[in-house]
Model the fold of this input.
Amino acid sequence: MLSKHLSRFGRFGLLACLVYYSAGCATYSQHATSMRASLEAGRPDLALSLEEQKDPEQKDVLACMEKGMLLQMVGEYDASNQIWEVGKQHIEDLYGVSVTESLGSVTINDATRSYEGERFEQVLLHVYMAMNYLMLDDIDAARVEMLQADVKMREWGDQPEEDAFVSYFAGLVYEALGENDDALISYRNARDVYLATRNEQAIGVPMILKKDLLRLLEEQGLWNEYRQLKDDFGMANYKPLKISGQFGELIVILSNGLAPLKSETAIMTFSPEVSDNVRVAFPVYKDPPQTLKTARLVVNDKALKLETVENIDSLARHSLEAEMPMIMTRAIARAVIKYNSQKKAKGENALAGFLMTVTNIATERADTRSWTTLPQEIQMARTTMPVGTQPVRIEMVNSAGLVVDAINEVVTIRPGQRNFIIKHWVAPVLAQPTATAILYKAKI
Done:
């Protein structure tokens, strides 16, 4: 009887649709979990191998984001930026979303749309590229990336769309170039955005930024603003430290942990349009933020705790919360379309109705894609150091106060200049019985 009402092509088309979307939606979630498990086991090399196997040609934005970060973790800074340049071009190409993709998000699921990255992910892409350029000793290229990030944030409109750390990091780049006027502008803007977004970020104005602002204001003789900020910050007795000719500065930037991972949930909700309950699926962050290891910088037997300057975990959760009304609107509209298609199919044939119901359930999946190799937080420390070549160490300390890992570096401090150490820590990197693996240990 089925052949009378449903062609063989149609029957297999429905089943193929079911298999394709069930497998496709699960694939990225499984891949991200495997990749992160490798990082948490101290195997960034294995995580990179998994990413290269999944998408060797980096055909989409997310593949470029993930592979670029993994390459940075293993010290391949130039290769990382080459991949990220491809990702940036993909993002530009996606600004004009096709009608087909928009239709698919309403009739099938949100995962049919090409992923262009959340706004905070797009601007952080520029930041991490700038970090690579700093490690490649190309500070002019780092400056270009920060200018591009600023243009992108301004295109989005109001201040709440800005990222405070992006402005702060831009100030670091300008100051390293000796462009102190621009650095001061960036630091001021960073302070304003930290204040405006303190609820989303779960952090206020970092102490490290307060000190940078006061130092530059004093250097430029802007005494009214200097005194006002000292009062606002409650730092009446603070005296900025000047870098003399026999000293330079070390700036440590640590990406700590991993950003939260989206998962899917589904509920039944009443739709007045069909006067019945319909099933909708949407993304959520089920797990709370992880407890991070404490990071401290040890220089000449003196320890300085790194301070959080970017809470990516909070940014991600706030971004999803802000998008949820639109996500639910599309999900309910989609559910109504599917409900009506099931009803029509059941009216024609019971088996056709059953197949349509199963297909609709299988294709109603949440879009759980995100840049999963981003850190949970970005942390910083700045310290003056005497001129010369000397060892420094970043220690990772657990809740019991025990050092669980140490990143050892040697820096050469030059008079009045700034040096950067930029690292991403997830777990102690396992020593491998190969020269390549030992190189990873040395660079992470």
